Amino acid sequence: MKRLRESLRRRIAHLRMAWRRRVYQFRARRERWLRRARYLRSRLPWRQSRQTVHEQNIWNLYMDVAWWGIANGVWLTYLSVFAVRLGASTQWLGVLAALPALVNMIWAIPSARIVERAPRRLPLVLRVGFLQRLAWLGVALVPFLFREQASVFAVVFIAGLTTIPAATSTVAFTSMMADLIPPQDRARVVSIRSVLLSATTTLTVLACGPILDALPFPVSYQVVFGFSFLAAMMSLRYVARLHVPEEVSAAHRERPKAWSTTSIRNAIREVTAAKPFVNYVVSSLIFHWGIYFPMALYSIYRVRNLGATDTWIGLLTMVDSVMTIVFYIVWGRLATKWGNRRVLIIGAFGMVAFPVLTGLATSLPMLLIPSFIAGIFTPAFNLAAFNEMLAVSPEAHRPRFIAIYTSAVNAAAFVAPLAGSYLAAATDIRLALYLGGAFRFLGGLAFVLMLGTGTRRDEVPR
Prior knowledge:
CATH architecture: Up-down Bundle
Radius of gyration: 26 Å
Order of helices and strands: HHHHHHHHHHHHHHHHHH
Shape: globular
Structural class: mainly alpha
Low-confidence stretches: 457-462
Strand content: under 5%
CATH class: Mainly Alpha
């Protein structure tokens, strides 16, 4: 009996020790996870300190792009689909994709002149930004004011007209952002802005799909575009809160002289002397031809060839955006480690797969594969391309160089969709999609040959 009691006592003591050990391990693991959670929470943009003007500016830039993502998601995802529902032909969709690029191509350089002559850039950004955002309200009112083909023309006209203030806003805001954010913080801020843009775009597109399917046409699209107009105005509200340091404003108060033959000749000589910038623009022109060549065909192929509903279109965009959110963080770290150019080239070659796999898809579930791949490689190209463009643009006349780059890219954005649409109408839409992939591959080769795969002297990979 004594042996039994002693054995039972030892067994109970052993179980107590085991239980205490497990409780201790559980508490230690919980404490580690809590520390990690507190660290991650402290890294969120809205948890950062905003005591200085610089920190407040960064916060306002984050909130600006978060609200802008709502309007951006509706415009990019559903404008062409809205035109298709209104009865737009393949040629009209080509014009819808190309007309904004034509206006941008023509107006970008005059916009740079306007920005360079503006003593303060923030008021200019606010004025043209307000005019740009009226486009969402205009599209929402189209079914009230026009019928049948006139409504298609109105949508295309509004999309082209809003590009005039949008071009000026892009040049002014990009140059102002380069002044507000120092180079050491630029990669972090751009990366977080990209994540916020993708996140809000994803949530917006995901929410809009069921709304568009549930409400009758065209009321559904009017509700969505009307709400996105309000979101765009909230974005402008946070832009208005930006504080531009006085020394930055003073640096822009010396207005450039009026255009003359000598000044134009000097400007051309200045641009051609910047060899890294010229090489980057030529390579980007080739690659963006591959981006825009099949741009007008995706909605047609999804809706008419595969019978995609608005919910399916939202799902495809959501998959792309979720992957984009994750890989913006990944590529941001890799760009710090490898340099922007290597990430740019990897992203360019990875983006070849999207139009090719879209053309190979014979059912809606198969479209998830190119959306998944696009979400991996598109953030690499976008992040590295923006930073590389700022790096190769001389600081003294940055608005001018940004405008030249924008005009070159939009030259491809204007001609390529028209060429792709007419080729698809004359032959087969899949052939146009495959050619878009081929042009992207040639653009990737141009980046390799004209830029190289090494890092710039101002980059210090870790």
